[in-house]
Amino acid sequence: MTSPRRTFAIISHPDAGKTTLTEKLLVAGGAIHLAGEVKARGANRRARSDWMKIEQQRGISVTSSVMTFERDGITFNLLDTPGHEDFSEDTYRTLTAVDSAVMVIDAARGIEAQTRKLFEVCRLRSVPIITFVNKVDREGRPVFELLDEIADILALDVAPMSWPIGMGGEFEGVLDLETGGVSRPEGDSRNFQGKVDTDVTLPERFAEEVELAQAGYAPFDAEAYRNGDLTPVYFGSALKDFGVAELIDALARHAPPPRPQPAEPAPIAPNADEVTGFVFKVQANMDPNHRDRIAFMRLCSGTFKRGMKLTPTGHGKPIAVHSPILFFAQNREVADEAFPGDIIGIPNHGTLRVGDTLSERADIRFTGLPNFAPEILRRVALKDPTKTKQLRKALDDMAEEGVTQVFYPEIGSNWIVGVVGQLQLEVLISRLEAEYKVAAGLEPAPFDTARWVTGEAADLKAFADLNRGAMAKDRDGNPVFLAKSAWEIGYVADRYPKVRFNATRER
């Protein structure tokens, strides 16, 4: 029996319309009753999934949220990922927890840099992708050009499932290639209500386009899609509510239910009896009044029951999960049970970390959730020296979440934070002030990047003794080499062939 769960993420370049599409999916799924337009002022400016202060100020998503809704007997777990290019690390971890993805492309811009980067992350894990070409109610590029670009740049077969009848000022609706029905715009141009017309004769130009498309592109193949070799392509306008219902239907019909997850000593199938899951995200202070910390766990197998005991790989001591949470963005409700594919939140006091496996036994470990070497390093300058303890706790909290990494140099007392994108530094300073009441600044560090070093104990000691000024520990005590440039990493690696300089470290 196929599981009634669809756990998926939405990926896109910034400004492709991902946040608006998220809202409209939630409206269509009955999870919310009114979508606030992205261009609205004041409190309506942010989507329901954007709750952090800096997100509200800047109108962008900088952390991953989970939203669960039901439609026609299927539970959809939507993981809203950061669209900004500076948040690839958090986005990567979120993509480890999904079974499929929706890729949103702007009809006027086509494939953009961040879209391609996120797609490659999906390809690493063979995550099947449905493509949604957004904003067809505005002027855009020719449809064939867009489809060919997707096929060429992403090396995917494309299977158009719908077709826009005109774009921009000539937009007359969207044709469903399977049923032949056309969703037509009606009413106020700012709030179209699509009417499906099943008795329609297409203008000759569009009829020829459709005939060419059906002859020239691959037909939809469910197996090729689920293997990550083909992407079905839907056209629409999230803002004007075109194609959103069809997208949900496509996820329900074609997207895979929970899939086996990579683990040691063997992959874990969703129909296994024992409860297993892994933590792909930790979020502190979702409710600043309670100073809470929530571990987001993807349930991989078994039927989870509230109150059951699970053993985390981090310390091997069973913990009782008394108050598991199901999410709707910042809102939450206690979950009495959960099933493979579900995302549950586990309140804790720092005992759970990203990458931890939780299971009824202690001999399973899920794999593939790495840390990435930071691309930007900064020294933290505390403005009030009496707040050192609070700063240490804040940096540890955010290191656990993956917002930053913290390095403690062997020589000197200045802590160094590392991030994979510039905007994370703004998030760090904003959250230090808003959540921890710590005023701090960032100063240039004498280093440009970092590498985790591994090797035989004697080789590592010899290397560290000769390079003490560039050695540090991460918050887990792992040795780290701080480098002034990528060139220096190559130079030092050549001089010390018995030491490995790692750009990633699996948790």
TrEMBL record:
One of its GO terms (molecular function) is GTP binding. It comes from the Bacteria. The keyword Zinc does not apply. GTP binds at residues 12-19, 80-84, 134-137. CDD domains: RF3. Increases the formation of ribosomal termination complexes and stimulates activities of RF-1 and RF-2. It binds guanine nucleotides and has strong preference for UGA stop codons. It may interact directly with the ribosome. The stimulation of RF-1 and RF-2 is significantly reduced by GTP and GDP, but not by GMP. This is Peptide chain release factor 3. The lineage of its organism: Bacteria, Pseudomonadati, Pseudomonadota, Alphaproteobacteria, Sphingomonadales. The gene is prfC.
